[in-house]
Amino acid sequence: MGLFSNQFSNVVEWNETREGVLFYKWQNQEIKKGSKLIIRPGQDAIFMYNGVVEGIFEQEGSYDIESDIIPFLTTLKSFTFGFNTPLRAEVLFINTKELLVKWGTKNAINLPAAGLPGGMPIRAFGTFNCKIVEHDIVIDKLAGIRQTYTVDDVKERIIASLDQLLMSWISKEGRDMFNLQADARNIAKGIESDLDADMRKLGIGITDFTIESFSYPEEIKKMQEKAAAQSMVGDMNKYTQMAAADSMGKGHGSNVASDMVSMQMGMAIGQQMMNQMNGAQNMGAGMSQTGNMNSAGGAGPKFCPNCGTPTTGTKFCGNCGNQLY
Predict the structure, then answer these.
(1) Separation between Cα atoms, residue 166 and residue 164, nearest integer Å
(2) Element (H or E) spanning 198, and its range?
(3) Enclosing H/E stretch for 268
(4) CATH of domain 99-216
(5) Shortest CA distance to 40 belongs to which of 27, 67, 21?
(6) What CA–CA distance (Å, rounded) separates 274 from 239?
(7) pLDDT surpassing 90 at residue 111
């Protein structure tokens, strides 16, 4: 008799040999006499019979199915193993751990930006955390038709809606399109809330969402660097002229579109910086003009109020041509 008992016994378990699996359905539906159930740390085991949940077991350990499990099943508590009558049931193992997933936009997202009719193309990268939060919904929506469900499946669903969410939260009023990283935390929290609401329809929660970096096209990065350098000189008119000259000197063909974007980007950044610097420049020019007038004869200023170049007593600045008096 012991020989037959060993022959028909089996072990119901999930070894988790594959990473990133949220649930796994035990494949052998025949549970024989003498079978053991093994629940590992970070796992729940759900017994199902004819598509109905019979019992949920959350405590890790090794259990004899006949004596430790069946008495707690809803409709199978009186089931008795015979010589050739295995229990035909499904066992669904749930991964209760929180899983970390990396994400990145598939294509560049064109954000509305002044001076760029086609928008400013950016990419974004980061991570999110997910875990199963509702067993019943997972069973109803996923487990009935899937053998497993992985973080790749979650990622695919999230990426499908991420472009629109990024555009929506980045375009909120007051955000600086040229320095999105400074507001990355607030943008990420808004996206996390929307994604969590969507994924909970499948019984999965998004417990964290982060944006590690925003990536601008190489042409725009170069224009930002040039604009930063020119701001130190304080002459944005020269920068605009220089950007136009650079664009015309690069040639034709496939580079034309890139050149136009670069020139428009430079002009947009230049205009933004000029607006920020106007107040300070006008104030400095007024003080210079008042403090440097010759009190004896009302002669012109010692420094040009437009560009700051020392004057030589002439009526026009020798550097920028501005009329001095």
Answers:
(1) 5
(2) helix 184-199
(3) helix 256-291
(4) 3.30.479.30
(5) 21
(6) 11
(7) no
| Contact call for residues 49 and 55 (beta carbons, < 8 A) | no
- What local confidence, expressed as pLDDT, does residue 5 receive? 43
* CA 229 from centre of chain: 31
For residues 218 and 227, the model is more confident at: 218
Tell me which of 265 and 17 has the higher pLDDT.
17
Sign of CA dihedral 102, 103, 106, 110: negative
CA-CA distance, 187 to 89, in Å (whole number)? 46
24 contacts 149 by C-beta, under 8 angstroms: no
For residue 242, the SS3 value is helix
What burial class does residue 43 get, using C-beta atoms within 10 Å of its C-beta: 0-12 exposed, 13-18 middle, 19+ buried?
buried
DSSP lists the bridge partners of residue 101 as 128
User: CA-CA distance, 309 to 318, in Å (whole number)?
Assistant: 8
CB 122 within 8 A of CB 111: yes
Token digits for 221? 């990065």
Cα torsion 268, 272, 273, 277: sign? positive
Q: What is the CA radius of gyration of the chain?
A: 35
Structure tokens, 277:
């610097």
Residue 215 DSSP SS3? strand
Place of tokens 């930063």: 228
Task: Evaluate whether 188 touches 126 at the Cβ level (below 8 Å).
Answer: yes
